[in-house]
Amino acid sequence: MFSSSNSIRARRVAGTAALGFAAVLGLAACGSSAADDAAGSGNPDTLVFASIPSEESQSLQQEYKLVTDVIEKETGKTVEFLNASDYAAVIEAQRAGKVQIAAYGPFSYVTAKDSGVGTIAAAAAVDEEGTDPGYQSYAIVNPDSGITSLADMRGKTICFVDPTSTSGYLYPSAGLLEAGIDPAKDITPVFAGGHDASALAVASGQCDGGFAYDTMVDVALPSKGELAPGAVNVIWKSEEIAGSPITVSDDLDPALRDQIVEILQTKITVPQLIAGGYCTSADDCTLPEDKKFGYVPVDDASFDGVRKVCETTKAEACQ
Hints:
The chain is α/β, with parallel strands linked by helices. It has two domains: 114 residues, 3-Layer(aba) Sandwich (D-Maltodextrin-Binding Protein, domain 2); 195 residues, D-Maltodextrin-Binding Protein, domain 2, CATH 3.40.190. Helices cover 40% and strands 18% of the residues. The chain has 13 helices and 13 strands. The chain has a six-stranded mixed β-sheet, with helices on both faces. Strands 8-7-9-6-10 form a five-stranded mixed β-sheet. Strands 5-11 form a two-stranded antiparallel sheet. Strand 7, helix 8 and strand 8 form a beta-alpha-beta unit. The N terminus is likely disordered.
C-alpha cells in the first residue's frame, strides 16, 4: 500500500504513460526465449500470458495458475505468466507480438482491438453456470469524508485505478459527468494502479473517495482481512459491465489459436477442473476475480456497451 498521499499522487496520468512504456520494455526483456519464439513463429514453444493489474502481482499470478496449468497440459506448451504495471503495457506487448494470451478489462480490450491489435475475445468468467459475464463499478468513500453522492465528490481527492480501466475509470467518469462533475477539472484525480490499491487508499483516508469493481470490495479484500466491515461506504453502482475477457493473439498458427480459444471456452470451469484432477473440490479451485463457476464464451459484440460509454464520455483514453 502507499506510504503517503504524495506517493499515491505520483501515479497520475503523466506518470502512467511512463510506467506503461517501462512495462512494455520489461515484457520484452523478460523471458527472452518466449520473446524470440513469439517474434519468429506462430507456433512457439512458450506462450506468454499477460494480465492487467487488478491487484498485487503475486496473488494475481496465483489466481491464474489453474488457467495457465490447463493451457499448458492441453497444448503441450510452456506458459509464462507476466503481470504488467498497467493496461497500456499489455496492449503494446500484444501488439508487438510479445504476448500471445492476454487477460484484459473490457475497456482495455476495446482499446486494443479498436487500435488494430490482432486479438480475439475468447472467454470471460462467471459465478454461476448459465449466466452472462458481467460486473459493476462501485463508488466508495471513506466514512469520514462526508460524501454521500457522486455530486459531493466535487473538490475532493478521488482514487481511480488506471486511465484505461473500465470499472476503475471509464464508467466512473460517465457517472461523474452525469452528476455534473468533470473528472478532469472538478476533482483531484489519483491513479492507484490497481483495484485493491484504490479501495485501500479510500479506507485509509489517502483518498476521500474512489472506484473499484464490485467483487474486490465485496469479496476479495474482505476475505483476506484487508478491508474491515464499515471501512468504506458504497454510494454508487454502475450499470452492468461486460465481463473481463481473456483474449488470444490472431498471429498464432490458426490450429493453435483455435485450440487455445476452445480450451478457454470449454475446459476452465470448476466441474471440468475437478474432473481433470486440477483441484479436488470447488473450494480448491481458485479462479480470477473469485469467480465460482469458470469461463464461458464471449465475442467482440459483447463489448459494444463499452464503446457506447466511450462515445458518451469522450475520455482521452478512448481516442
